[in-house]
Amino acid sequence: MKVILASNKAAGDQAAFNVFQQVIENGAKVLGLATGSTPEGLYKLLRESDLDFSAMTSVNLDEYVGIAPDNPQSYHYFMQKHLFDAKPFAHSYLPNGLADDPDAEVKRYDQVVADHPVDLQLLGIGRDGHIGFNEPGSPFDGGTHRVKLTQSTIEANSRFFASEDDVPKEAYTMGIGTILKSKEILLMAYGDKKAAAVQKMIEGPVTTDVAASALKKAANVVVILDPAAAAKLQPSSITERI
Ligand code: PGA
Known about the structure:
By secondary structure, this protein is of the alpha/beta class. Helix content is 29%, strand content 18%. It has 7 helices and 11 strands. 2-phosphoglycolic acid binds next to loops.
């Protein structure tokens, strides 16, 4: 795990952009994408760049259950707004939050990811250490599944909704096993609310109590942090400072 400490968020966004640019130059065909506040600066750099995704495929980590793709709170909508409207891919896949048959939807999405092996998977991290919506206790070999969100995640995501009651209580998410199949993984974390989860991921034991600790089992992982997110780390845990 390569841990890059950026002097600020803008430097972190630029470092993340550079990782994307490099894998695309190296022939990546499939990008695994994420939603949330953390990647917004990276998506802005990608929108404003001359990178061309029109021959590439994207697969997203997760989607809320019960929300239509054109609902502004859906992850479909987020991706359209932050990336796809400006930079369309040949094919973009997300779980279907309105699927009638959740079991069939889970199987369909696992097949999508199997058919499009991810070259670079972008991740954020939850305050409880989740990656995608793999909350504490998720098995490390799991595929796509339907999850109940933890109270911590519902509270964290309530900032995007009128009230906490409006936050969907369930989501579809790629599993940790799915994520670990990516050739390369880029995890970004900014802000002091992520510091404890980042410290557990990097310096703590590999345990299903901290979903992100599974990334220690993956070969090519880059973590980009700002000083607030890195505040609880030992200096020796930092690979590079930019
Ligand atoms: P955030 O979410 O980028 O909005 O902080 C990250 C996550 O919960 O995985």
